[in-house]
């Protein structure tokens, strides 16, 4: 069967280490099969709604050649309608470009067959009398065949998750002219397709034409869904004659396995990445892939309803208020991107056929409207945050606009289930992944109308960039590292201190980040997750609340002072001012502060703050017990908790210290600690560390790994990432993580077999066998390597 073929093909490709081009071709073939499977699963209930159920039809008795020809049965009609659809879809490969278009083409075929059933005399017995689209006068005795049969496209869209405007567009502009062409070529004949003297010839001619198509340019014969073994091989239901056969005990497990494979592959909804699982619940209602796709398109259309693909008056006013109006450059850039997109979208390649220009223009228009809508929201938010500061510098960033437009195009392609999947769009627009990922979080936070699947899709794209696409040899990441003197930020330099877990003794900071707030928390997710506020630590900081202006601007001198997570709050600024104007800090053991009326435990460290005396007032002295949070440089990290919405301000001082009054210890403040890293490089590594931490925790949980071993694995991983950055060139983040896991388990004698590690890794949503089966060992320079040399080497499981 095809299911077994694809399963064995994947194993063979892994064992033979075939090139990526071949893998992509097989994946495209499998996706076409999945689309057809999904459409057929939708075709059955719609057909049963319009016509009689072919599964309940009694089998025709065998007739001799002398007997007269009998009218077509419901089962014959079922087969004819499906064959007409797959043949039409094959000749309209630009319509079969995505799931939504294919589904609407199916509705057009059903509409045509319904109309012929009404037109053909004595063929109304094929119709389901309870169908809501039947004419009111159908049941009257003297009804005549309507000159112009009613169109049921609207009814089908209403009952079966269709989009009326798009379905009618396909019917008028593509389907009707094509059917007329089939009549001109004599493939279809007669005033009524179902007429007694025409149906058999029409069915034979249509099947013959489709067979020629399959043998020349087709991928596979989609009539397999109608075969006698369809249930066993694919999962489609059998007709009564075959359904009466009892399944043997040995065949049942095989069919169960095939059905599970089908159910797994027939879902086009993106799996939830590990970094978003805490904030997105799985859907409770069962939604079909077609319904999910059409709902995504409906949500997209509702987001842009009433808007036009040009700057609104409000956005135009914002642009004109800048020191240098960027209006002209923005409009011209959008036009240039649109031309590039349309050219690539309509161009045929070896992997996929080109689409019609009408579909390209339609997708582009939706993306342009979405771009201007989100750009306006971003500008309003930035204006409010910067208190009216001029936004010219940001609006003149070509990279920001191109990335935002590319992200909008990607959302539209995803909504239509297009096979042009990421990273197709950034390759077409020549965008570097290292720069593109910055706009993803900005877009999600700015647009509240995104569907759940859209948020998950963008989150998975960000993960793809962080794990592999940004680490390619020609990535802009290496230029950024070179500009920073090849100093890779450590986890401690980019993660806020309160987001680290405690060390083994519970009295200090560990190395592994805690589960901080998701890098992408959509406003709609907060509404759904009513338990969000109570289940999270109040003192934990969001992973990356950095503003758009900071993402696309170079940090100015001195701006790195504890501003990793945005601007300092007024409360923090006031504290800095006090600390720099005479406040004295002393940290000492509790035994040396015996005179203070403070409840402390024996041996506990306390912090004494003394403010200077002023005219008419004496100095104040405050003693605060410390719950020691030691760091790796012998200091104590103090996190004053502000009662306002301001962020905690980390203060570090050396401990242990001599008794109070020692001049050597007065004035030790936060300036003595290492400065936090800011800028685009720090943002990138912050997200990388978060992603790796989440995946490592998931593996450790599944393999029952101790906390001590988990911390050692993390230390090994972080050390390698910081001090051996070149190891990541043209490799995958998971490869480094899995190696660190296996090595540290070996060293500490808490062994986990490679097979056990791989088994747990395969259950992660992003897992791909190519990651651990084809691992780059060394690069051969282009001038000495043979063009046929393969740099990938197979890694066998041990």
Automatic annotation (TrEMBL):
Superkingdom, natural source: Eukaryota
Gene that encodes the chain: Rbl1
The protein, known as: RBL1 protein
Subcellular localization: Nucleus
Retinoblastoma-associated protein A-box domain sequence ranges: 288-481
GO biological process, one term: regulation of transcription by RNA polymerase II
Keywords: Cell cycle, Chromatin regulator, Nucleus, Phosphoprotein, Repressor, Transcription, Transcription regulation
Ranges where the Cyclin-like domain occurs: 694-786
InterPro entries: Cyclin-like_dom, Cyclin-like_sf, RB_A, RB_B, RB_fam, RB_N
Domain Retinoblastoma-associated protein N-terminal: start-end pairs: 1-116
Pfam families (alphabetical): DUF3452, RB_A, RB_B
Organism of this sequence: Xiphorhynchus elegans
Family: Belongs to the retinoblastoma protein (RB) family.
GO cellular component, one term: transcription regulator complex
Region Disordered: start-end pairs: 652-673
Recorded GO MF terms: RNA polymerase II transcription regulatory region sequence-specific DNA binding
């Amino acid at each position: 069967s095809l299911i077994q073929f694809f399963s064995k093909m994947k194993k063979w490709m892994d064992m033979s280490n075939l090139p990526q081009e071949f893998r992509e071709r097989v994946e495209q073939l499998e996706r076409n099969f999945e689309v057809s499977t999904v459409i057929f699963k939708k075709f059955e209930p719609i057909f049963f709604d319009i016509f009689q159920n072919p599964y309940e039809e009694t089998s025709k008795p065998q007739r001799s050649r002398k007997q007269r020809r009998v009218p077509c049965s419901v089962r014959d009609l079922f087969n004819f309608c499906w064959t007409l659809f797959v043949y039409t879809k094959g000749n309209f490969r630009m319509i079969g470009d995505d799931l939504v278009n294919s589904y609407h083409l199916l509705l057009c075929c059903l509409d045509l067959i319904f109309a012929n059933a009404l037109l053909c005399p004595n063929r109304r017995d094929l119709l389901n009398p309870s169908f809501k689209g039947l004419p009111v006068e159908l049941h009257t005795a003297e009804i005549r065949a309507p000159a112009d049969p009613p169109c049921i496209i609207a009814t089908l869209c209403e009952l079966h998750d269709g989009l009326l405007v798009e379905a009618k567009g396909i019917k008028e502009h593509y389907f009707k002219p094509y059917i007329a062409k089939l009549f001109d070529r004599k493939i279809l004949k007669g005033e009524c397709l179902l007429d007694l003297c025409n149906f058999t010839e029409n069915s034979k001619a249509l099947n013959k034409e489709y067979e020629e198509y399959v043998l020349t340019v087709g991928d596979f014969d989609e009539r397999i869904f109608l075969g006698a073994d369809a249930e066993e091989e694919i999962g489609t239901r059998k007709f009564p004659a075959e359904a009466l056969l009892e399944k043997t005990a040995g065949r049942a497990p095989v069919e169960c396995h095939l059905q599970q494979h089908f159910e797994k592959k027939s879902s086009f909804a993106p799996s939830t990445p590990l970094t978003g699982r805490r904030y997105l619940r799985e859907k409770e209602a069962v939604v079909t892939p077609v319904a999910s796709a059409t709902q995504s398109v409906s949500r997209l259309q509702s987001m842009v309803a009433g808007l036009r693909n040009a700057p609104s008056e409000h956005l135009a006013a914002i642009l004109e208020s800048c020191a240098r109006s960027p209006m002209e450059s923005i409009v011209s850039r959008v036009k240039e991107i649109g031309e590039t997109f349309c050219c690539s979208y309509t161009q045929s390649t070896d992997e996929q056929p080109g689409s019609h220009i009408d579909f390209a223009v339609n997708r582009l228009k939706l993306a342009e409207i979405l771009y201007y809508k989100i750009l306006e929201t971003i500008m309003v938010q930035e204006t409010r945050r910067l208190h009216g500061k001029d936004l010219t510098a940001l609006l003149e960033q070509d990279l920001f606009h191109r990335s935002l437009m590319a992200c909008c195009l990607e959302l539209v392609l995803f909504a239509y289930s297009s096979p042009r999947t990421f990273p197709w769009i950034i390759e077409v627009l020549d965008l570097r992944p290292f720069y593109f990922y910055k706009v993803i979080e900005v877009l999600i936070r700015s647009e509240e109308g995104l569907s759940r699947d859209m948020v998950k899709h963008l989150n998975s794209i960000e993960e793809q960039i962080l794990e592999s696409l940004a680490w390619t040899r020609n990535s802009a990441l290496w230029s950024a590292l070179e500009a920073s003197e090849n100093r890779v930020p450590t986890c401690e330099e980019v993660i806020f201190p309160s987001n680290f877990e405690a060390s083994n003794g519970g009295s200090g900071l560990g190395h592994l980040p805690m589960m901080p707030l998701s890098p992408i928390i959509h406003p709609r997710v907060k509404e759904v997750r009513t338990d969000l506020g109570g289940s999270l630590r109040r003192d934990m900081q969001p992973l990356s609340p950095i503003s758009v202006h900071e993402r696309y601007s170079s940090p100015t001198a001195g701006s790195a002072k504890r501003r990793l997570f945005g601007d300092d709050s007024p409360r923090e600024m006031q504290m800095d001012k006090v600390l720099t104007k005479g406040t004295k800090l002393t940290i000492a053991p509790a035994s040396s502060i015996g005179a203070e009326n403070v409840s402390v435990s024996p041996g506990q460290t306390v912090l004494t703050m003394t403010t200077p005396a002023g005219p008419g007032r004496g100095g104040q002295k405050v003693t605060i017990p410390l719950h020691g949070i030691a760091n790796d440089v012998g200091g104590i990290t103090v996190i004053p908790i502000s009662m306002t919405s301001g962020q905690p301000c980390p203060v570090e001082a050396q401990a242990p210290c001599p008794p109070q009054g020692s001049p050597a210890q007065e004035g030790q403040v936060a300036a003595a600690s290492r400065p936090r890293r800011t800028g685009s490089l720090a943002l990138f590594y912050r997200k990388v560390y978060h992603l790796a931490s989440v995946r490592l925790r998931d593996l450790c949980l599944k393999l029952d790994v101790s906390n001590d071993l988990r911390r050692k694995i993390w230390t090994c991983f972080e050390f390698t990432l910081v001090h051996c950055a070149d190891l990541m060139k043209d490799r995958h983040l998971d490869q480094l993580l899995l190696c660190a896991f296996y090595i540290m388990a070996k060293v500490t004698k808490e062994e986990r077999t490679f097979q056990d590690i791989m088994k747990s890794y395969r259950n992660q949503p992003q897992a791909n066998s190519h990651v651990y089966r084809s691992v780059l060992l060394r690069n051969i320079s282009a001038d000495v390597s043979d063009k046929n040399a393969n740099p990938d080497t197979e890694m066998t499981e041990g």
